[in-house]
Amino acid sequence: MAARCGDCVRSVIIAPGVGAPPSLGVLGNQTDQRGSSSHGHVTGSAGGRRAGRPSTPLRPRVRRPDVRRHAGVLRAGRLRRAVPVRRLRRAELAPLRGDRHRCGAVLHAALRRAAALARQGPAVAVPRHARPAGGEPGAERGGRGPAGVAAHPAGRRHAHGRRRDLPAGAPGRRTARATRSGGRLVSGISRRSLLWGAGAGALAIGGGGLLAFRFTGTDSTGTLLRSGIDLPPPFRRPLTQPPVLAPVESTGDTDVYEITQREATAEFFEGVQTPIWGYDGIFPGPTIVSPRGRTTVVRHRNELPVPSVVHLHGGRVAPEHDGYPTDLILPADGSLDDHHGTGHGGHAGDVTHGSRSYEYPIDQRAATLWYHDHRMDFTAPAVWRGLAGLHLVTDEEERALPLPDGDRDLALVIMDRAFDEDGALRYPSRDPELLETPGVTAPYEAGVLGDVILVNGTPWPYQEVDAVRYRLRLLNGCNARRLRLRLDPAPDGVDEPLVQIASDGGLLERPRAHPHIDLASAERQEVVVDFSRYGPGQTVRLVNDFGSGTTADVMEFRVVREARDESEVPERLSEIERLDPADAVRERDMVFQSNAVDGQHGWTINGDPFSVDRVHAAPNHGDIEIWNLYTDFHHPIHLHLVHFQVLKRGSREPGRFDGGWKDTLDLGPAEQARIITRFDGYRGKYVFHCHNLEHEDMMMMGNFEVR
Length: 707
Description:
Elements: E1 2-5, E2 10-13, E3 30-31, E4 37-38, H1 90-93, H2 100-117, E5 123-125, E6 163-165, E7 175-177, E8 186-187, E9 200-204, E10 210-214, E11 221-225, E12 249-251, E13 254-269, E14 272-279, E15 288-291, E16 295-302, E17 310-313, E18 329-330, E19 352-353, E20 355-360, E21 367-373, H3 379-385, E22 388-394, H4 396-399, E23 409-417, E24 448-450, E25 452-455, E26 458-459, E27 462-466, E28 469-476, E29 483-488, E30 498-503, E31 506-514, E32 517-519, E33 524-530, E34 539-544, E35 553-561, E36 586-597, E37 600-605, E38 615-617, E39 624-631, E40 635-639, E41 644-649, E42 664-667, E43 672-678, E44 684-690, H5 693-697, E45 701-706
Parallel strand pairs: 6-36, 11-24, 13-16, 15-22, 18-19, 23-28, 27-35, 36-39, 38-45
Antiparallel strand pairs: 1-2, 3-4, 5-7, 8-11, 9-10, 12-13, 13-14, 16-20, 17-21, 21-22, 23-25, 25-26, 28-33, 29-32, 29-34, 30-31, 30-33, 34-35, 36-37, 39-43, 40-42, 40-44, 41-43, 44-45
């Protein structure tokens, strides 16, 4: 199958039967040694039985690009069989001309199409990496680059003086075999990227693991888990706000809070009691509000039957208070005191018995943060059962703005869940006790998507509003589902009714109006909606354009009365320091891809599963670095400790939702992004990972250590 994108002069011949997507953005954009965008070129030969020869695997021809101009090339593996594949139609590529960022995704999808037609999986190879000399973290790149192309020798610097580092512990060559599976994985590539419409195939993941997928237009990577209980009609129950937690003690510049993690029940459906795990026994947990400059101490007591870890997502805190995945709080009843290494690969970090105090200095900008369980191997099911809550940071700059506040400042924690016939939460854990074996059963390895949308723990609620401006703090608390939120109907004559004022790391410099808001797992956006553009008596739905059926509706607003409104959205919100790429001391590549882990399907960074002993990056305190992120499927990438700025998406400028300071970045299939950050605040070891929680639990996590 041949495909050509006219403007970027890329030609790819996809050898029949290649079923695994290349990982290093070979079908996306690469960055050459001068930091400019360029394309790799791939050629392959069709395979089949040659006359007079046995049916042996054939190796496709690979034309190496000019090293000076290209940074990557797909090193396709051996082909087991030939299958017919159709050509990309000219009409399919026409919308992409001139858009180098997206053409790669189309060719990536073509690989998937080839896999869909291969009823039995071929053996394929994923890109080769070279390990830096000595394997030390932060070692300079030498030998071959991440896609097998010769890079500059170790120790050589770019013209601007910045070193470009190969990730420590990069893998050797790996092979994978695709097999058939009856699972249904929803992998949403945008219409511009996936021009096929519906289709199905098998993804080679290695080691006998298997993953099936079907394109359904939901734009999420994961498998739909359907509820067994009869679901109620939407918009029958009012929205509730999680209670704001009061400190148990305030002394000087410190506020102390206490939270008990315990089993409880919640009434998601009328008359049905659902067992949950909750902070203070509620779903979601109580909201903590911390003013900047006052230290917040939260004492967590664990009365659950499993160990726990608490992470303040978006918080700039010392490593011992960040919630490292193996820094366990064992159950208070002592039931696991002698087994705290079980289920965590035998690795136990700083373990406490019964309780732990987390100290947060709150020396950061006003922002919507959240806290959730972060235990190694079992984050996804713990959060699914309810271990999540909001932590809001305020400061003088924010309070001085005339933004909506009080009852007109609404937090919306959006989650998807599935339920059994008896109302219990349904989740496909391999170990229902969440103690021994991590991960989920097939076919849910790509992510679990529920069919019930909860907002602050209420399915499809409604909210009565005055005809005034409201501030909505949006958090995607789903394990894997991506959201595209839109008002339906939009106000008459207003194409962009959602005015964004803040992102993960707080206020933007200036407000930005959008027709919709995209949110990947763990991302936060804050918007202002002017309901005065609707009349009393009107209803407005908040819908999810990435959903279908029961997941297309989120909640309903009911405009009930006119009221006085003294709020406004100023033209200038804040000042944001711009990090200069010229100040970066090095670059690193981080490749997020599906891979085999111990013979099972897993998710890896630079080909390696998570290990507490492996450090992918070791920046010095105060260093500014540029990280190039590459993906195969949807991966929301989250860095602990630091916030970052987006420099590029492929060859394009940052996306419309990439403004301000971020701690989580939504990346699509076969996409590359370039981010810049300063590693300051604290020294020590932190993690970064995909925030699709099933991916995280199945090893898509790495360490960086600030020295």
